[in-house]
Amino acid sequence: MARRLERPTRHTITEPGRLARELAAVRAQGYALTYEEMTAGSCSAAAPVVVAGRPVAALGIVLSARRARELPRLVEPLRAAAAGIAGAYER
Predict the structure, then answer these.
(1) CA-CA distance, 65 to 11, in Å (whole number)?
(2) 60 Rama sector, left if φ>0, alpha if ψ -120 to 50, beta otherwise
(3) Looking at beta carbons, which pairs linking 60-68 to residues 24 or more positions away fall under 8 Å?
(4) Among residues 2, 3, 11, 1, which one has the least CA distance to residue 65?
(5) Which of 32, 45, 50, 84 has a CA 20 to 30 Å removed from the CA of 24?
(6) Which GO terms describe its molecular function (predicted)?
(7) Distance between CA atoms of 23 and 36, rounded to whole angstroms?
């Protein structure tokens, strides 16, 4: 029997099918956004640091949920920073 996922907030995704779809979308778009899924009152964005085709780290930012509307416009700078770190890692 699979262990149930913890639900730290009411926004946390715990249903296996929904979580699988969310993870597939994250892989396809190359970043993740969360809205109060881990901590009430906060939202976040994260992008992988990919070296030789494999994720070796991640770079993320956390904002107050009151500033959630700003999160989507921060995705591209975050992805660029993660790519820059990957480039430095490969040198």
Answers:
(1) 12
(2) beta
(3) 65/35, 65/36, 65/40, 65/41, 67/43, 68/35, 68/43
(4) 11
(5) 84
(6) DNA binding; DNA-binding transcription factor activity
(7) 17
Indicate the domain borders of the chain. Answer: 16-90
> Given the DSSP bridges, would you call strands 42-51 and 32-35 parallel, antiparallel or unpaired?
antiparallel
Distances (CA, A) of 67 to 12, 26, 36, 46, 59: 19, 21, 12, 16, 19
pLDDT in tens, 19-75: 999 999 999 999 999 999 999 999 999 999 999 999 999 999 999 999 999 999 999
- Kindly state the tokens that stand for 29: 């778009």
Considering the segment(s) 16-90 as one domain, its CATH architecture is 2-Layer Sandwich (3.30)
**Whole-structure pTM value:** 0.85
Determine the pLDDT at residue 1: 41
